[in-house]
Amino acid sequence: MRLKFKKTVIVGPGLIGGSIGIFLRESKITSSVVGVTRHKDTLSKAVKKGAIDKAEIDLKKAVIDADLVLIATPVEALKKIIREIKNSLKPGCIVFDVGSTKREIVLHAEKMLPGGVYFVGSHPMAGSEKTGVEFARADLFNGSICFITKTKTTNKTAILMINELWKRLGAKCVEIDPCAHDDIVASVSHLPHLISAALVNSVPAEYLKFAGAGFKDSTRIAAASAEIWHDITLSNRKAILKQIKRFESVLKKLKKSITLKQGEQLIRQLDQAKKKRQSI
Predict the structure, then answer these.
(1) What is the architecture, at CATH level 2, of domain 181-278?
(2) Which of 73, 79, 72, 77 is nearest to 17 (CA)?
(3) Residue numbers of the chain with a pLDDT score lower than 50
(4) Closest Cα to residue 160, out of 256, 224, 96?
(5) pTM of the complete model
C-alpha cells in the first residue's frame, strides 16, 4: 500500500510520539513533521533528537493543511486537543492517537470531528517507565502489539493506512472494538501497574534498601508518570474495578491457603501461575 504524507503533525513529541516522528523522517513516509507542545524545551529536544523538522506552539496553526495528525498526549489532554483542532483540520485529514484507553477517546473523537476528517484509535503495547523524547527511538515498536480500534463509522481507507503505518513501525496489528480493548488492557496493563504501585507502597521505606532483583523487576512499572496513570485509571475506571475485584478473589484464595496451611492448594495455585507465565 502506498503510504505518503506531505505534512504530519505530532501533538506531544515525547517517547511514543517522538519515536514515530523519528521513523517517519528516516523512512521518508512524510515530507515534513511538525511537533507541537507548549513546552519549548521539549520542542528543542525533539528537533535535536531528529523526531521533528519544525517546532510549533500554536496548536490550531500547526494542524492547518496537515494530512496526518498524531495525538500522543495523556487521555484528558487528548480530548481537549480534539475539541481545539476540530475546525482547523482539512477534509481528508487522518487523526490517530496512541492513548492507553479507547472507548472514551474514540466516542469523543467521532462525536467532535467534522465530516471528511477521519479518526482511527490506536494503542501500541510498547514503551517504557522512562518518558521524554530523549528516550525515543525508531525501533521502539519492533515486535510489539498495536491495537487498532474499529467502529461502524471508521473510514476504511483511513484504518488501512494506519494499519500499514504501524506494520512498518514493526508492530503486529490487532483490529478490535474499543470496549473490548479496554477490557483487555485493564487486565494485562492497567491492573499490573496499580498492583505494582500498591506493592511498593506496602513496603516500609526502611526495607527498600534490601530490595533485590525480584522486587525491582516486579515493581519497575511503578516508576511511570503518576499524572499519565491518573488519566488512564479514571478513563478506564469501570473495567479496572472489574479486574481489581477478580484479583482480590485470587489473592483471597492464596491468603486462605497460607492461613490454613493448605500446602497442596498453595502448590497448585503457584504452579498454575508458573505455567501461565511460561506460556507468554
Answers:
(1) Orthogonal Bundle (1.10)
(2) 72
(3) none
(4) 96
(5) 0.89
At the second CATH level, the architecture of 5-176 is 3-Layer(aba) Sandwich (3.40)
**Model pLDDT, residue 151:** 96
- pLDDT at residue 129, rounded to an integer: 66
* Domain ranges (residues) in the chain: 5-176, 181-278
Same fold, 5-176 and 181-278: no
Residue pLDDT, tens place only, 149-172: 999 999 999 999 999 999 999 999
